[in-house]
Amino acid sequence: MIDRCGREIDYLRISITDRCNLRCVYCMPEGGVRALAHEDVLTYEEIVRVVRLMAGMGIRHIRITGGEPMARLGCLDLAEKIHAVPGIHSLSMTTNALLLRGRVNRAQEAGIDALNISLDTVDPDVYARMTRGGDVRTVLEVIDQAVQRGMGVKVNAVPVRGMNDGGLVRLAELARERPVCVRFIELMPVGCGADLSPVPTQEVEAKMERAFGALSPDDSVHGYGPARYVRPAGFAGSIGFISPMSHEFCGACNRVRLTADGYLKLCLNHTAGLDLRAMLRGGADDARLAGEIRAAIENKPARHGFMEEIGDREVRRMNEIGG
C-alpha cells in the first residue's frame, strides 16, 4: 500500500490489550487507568481476519504490542495464528519481559523471531521506581534466554532526565558481550510522557562516545523501523538511536497501528484513522474492509506534528494507543 506521500506501508503494530503488569512513569499514572471492557477489545479471530486481509494488501511485518501483550491470556496462541498467515515475513513482540520468564521457547515456537524488550535501566532500584514495582533481574534473565535461543533482541530505553540518565552507559554495556541492540528512544510528549523531561539523542550519543570511543556506523539490517545504529569497538551488539523529536523521520514512516479496541491508527500523534471494530462487527465484507483501509492509509498524515499545533492531536496514554 502506498500513501499520498509515496510511502510504502508494510508494517502493522497490533496492540492486543491496554492492560499491563507495570506502571511505567511515561506510560501510566501510578494508580493505573480504567481498562477497556472485555467486549470492547478485538477478539483474536477479528485480529487474525484483519491480518489476513492486510497481508493481502502488502503488510509484511507484524509487531504484537500492548499494554503488555503477555498480560492477555492466549497471546502466544495468537502469535502462532498470525505467523501462519501467508505473506507475513516477520513477527515480533514488544514486551517488558516479566511474564515471558520460562516461556521464551514457546514464544519462538509460536513464530516470534524477535523481541523488543522495554528496559530503561539495569539499576534494580531505578528500575523499580520507574516501573513502580518491576524486578530487573527477571528482565535480564529473559534477555539472556532469548539470545541463547538465537532470537533477535532489541532493548528499548527511554532516557528521562533525573531518573535514568545517569545509568545509560551501564545499560549500553549489555551490547558489549551480547549480540543485542540497545536502543535509546527520545521521550515523546504523549500521555504521561508530556510531564517528564527528555534527554535528546545528541546528548545520549555524546555519553556513549565518551564512554566507548568512536562509534562506527552499523549498517546491518536490524529490523524495519527508523533506528540509526552504531557499534563501538569490541562490542558484539549495537547501540541504536530513535529520534522522533530531534531528527524527525516521518518521510520514511512505513507503519500503522491497530489499537486494542480495533481502531486503525495512522500516526502516533494524530487521531486520524478508521474504526475497524465497528465494521468487523457490523457485517462488512472483505471487499468493503479493504477499500476503507486503502482509503484511510492513502490519507496517512505526512508528519507527526509534535512540535506544532495540530487539529487532531492524540490525548490518550501510550498503553491505550499501543507501543
What does this structure look like?
The chain has 323 residues and is of the alpha/beta class. The mean pLDDT is 91. A hairpin with a 4-residue loop joins strand 10 and strand 11. 28% of the residues lie in helices and 17% in strands. It is built from 11 helices and 12 strands. It has a 12-stranded mixed sheet with strand order 7-8-9-6-5-4-3-2-1-10-11-12. The longest helix is centred in the middle third of the chain and has 13 residues. The chain starts with 10 loop residues before the first strand and ends with a helix.
Using only C-alpha atoms, the radius of gyration works out to: 19 Å
Mean pLDDT: 91
- Gross morphology: globular
List SSEs in N-to-C order: EHEHEHEHHEHHEHEEEEEEHHH
Biggest β-sheet: count, sense, barrel? 12 strands, mixed
> Unreliable segments (pLDDT under 50, ≥5 consecutive)?
none
Q: Which structural class best describes the helix and strand composition?
A: alpha/beta
Q: What is the β-strand count?
A: 12
Number of helices: 11
- Proportion of helical residues: 25-40%
Q: Strand percentage, roughly?
A: 15-25%
Task: Give the termini separation.
Answer: 22 Å
Concise summary:
By secondary structure, this protein is an alpha/beta fold. Helices cover 28% and strands 17% of the residues.
Features:
11 helices, globular, 323 residues, 12-stranded mixed β-sheet
Structural topology:
Elements: E1 11-15, H1 44-55, E2 61-65, H2 75-83, E3 90-95, H3 104-109, E4 114-118, H4 124-131, H5 136-148, E5 152-157, H6 168-172, H7 174-177, E6 181-185, H8 201-212, E7 215-217, E8 228-232, E9 238-242, E10 255-258, E11 263-265, E12 273-275, H9 276-281, H10 286-298, H11 318-321
Parallel strand pairs: 1-2, 1-10, 2-3, 3-4, 4-5, 5-6, 6-9
Antiparallel strand pairs: 7-8, 8-9, 10-11, 11-12
